[in-house]
Amino acid sequence: MIIATLKEISADENRVAISPDICKQYCKRGFSVIIEKNAGVKSSFLDIDYQNNGAKVLERDEILNQADIILNVTSILKEPELNKLKKDVIFLGTYNPYENFKNLNALACKNFSAITLDLLPRISRAQSMDVLSSQANLAGYKAVIEASSIFKKAMPMMMTAAGTIIPAKCLVLGAGVAGLQAVATAKRLGCVVSVFDVRPEVEEQVNSLGAKFIQVDQKKELEESELVYAKEMSDEYKKKQSEKIHEVSKEMDIIITTALIPGKKAPLLIKLNTIKSMKSGSVLIDLAASAGGNIEGSIFGKKVSIENTILYAPSNLPSLISYDASLLYSKNLFNFVITFINEEKKFNLEEDDEILRQTLIIKNGKKTNFFLKD
Cα–Cα–Cα angle for 50, 51, 55, nearest 5°? Predict the structure, then answer.
């Protein structure tokens, strides 16, 4: 089986789906690896690094003609490149079927198969393949670093002969993977950190990082639930939530929002009246902007000024630290691929496994997932 990766199509995507170290692991297992020329340069991986680890570095057309399985980060190939592929090619990446169903449908017109790890089930066996968690972890870290570069004050407390600088106050909305990493990073930089999340069970994790957990009374909402993600809350709860967040936000210097509900628009947590009540020079980072945003006025990929505050909705934070992001991402994909390799050293699309069932959205040209069905 020939495993391949290509340069990503998007101009702001610096990651690559196979790192040199993972290339070596594929080759050790008897696979051939082919890499498009300069595919890893934006992640600081040179062609010679791949060649030294057993890969062949080829031009794009040669890759398209030879590949059996193509690993991507987010790229979805289109015509005329699709016509250059073998008929049974398997695509594996993170294709965001909620938004890219039209481009994915084009793959179903051919005899291709597509697997998207956006839909990976939240089970223990899948943790080593969880690209969303590995990349969200880096996004949470980078969000705080971006905020610190915009913020015009020092973040830790400093005691000097000329006076004392008080520490910055940071509020993180959402205590998932990105949120908890944002908390840890903000604490390391010396901030006083508060956290809000609709799930009271995350309080222990928040406190263990040295942050204060803010909650809204939700007796009505606490009927036994084992949801891993946040869920849609009642109107009564949303009202209390809005009031609490407004009250707390007025004292904050930095706010980082990470709240998402899978398959739905991101909850609006901070409104314009709250932003206008914040201190001059405050910074807000909205990590949910691609799903509609947690903050009113967010423009995906842009920085905007609102009443002497800066609101930034970054488009692809993991791409800004592409070296480490690619290392983690390629390891996730490797763990997925080797799980479904059969005795003939081929990828087994027929295996009856929950992980494969949920992530396989196109199988031999036929749509298998409701996101893509007409």
Answer: 75
pLDDT tens, position by position, 311-325: 999 999 999 999 999
From the list 51, 66, 133, 277, the catalytic residue is 133
Catalytic residue, candidates 127, 128, 208, 234: 127
Average pLDDT over residues 19-32: 97
SS3 of residue 272 by DSSP? helix
Dump pLDDT digits (tens) for 58-73: 999 999 999 999 999 9
161, 301: one domain: yes
Clarify whether residues 141 and 174 are in a common domain: yes
Is 122 a known active-site residue? Answer: yes
Are 93 and 116 within 8 A, CB to CB?
yes
127 noted as active-site residue = yes
Active-site residue 133, yes or no?
A: yes
Strands 303-306 and 309-312: antiparallel
Spot the catalytic one: 118, 130, 197, 253. Answer: 130
Number of domains comprising the chain: 2
**Residues in Cβ contact with 368 at an 8 Å cutoff, skipping those fewer than 6 apart:** 360, 361, 362
The yes-or-no verdict on residue 223 having pLDDT over 60 is no
| Residue at 199: amino acid letter | R
For 314, the domain range is 132-320
Q: Given 29, 122, 125, 357, which residue is catalytic?
A: 122
CB 155 within 8 Å of CB 167: yes
- Average pLDDT value for residue range 82-105: 90
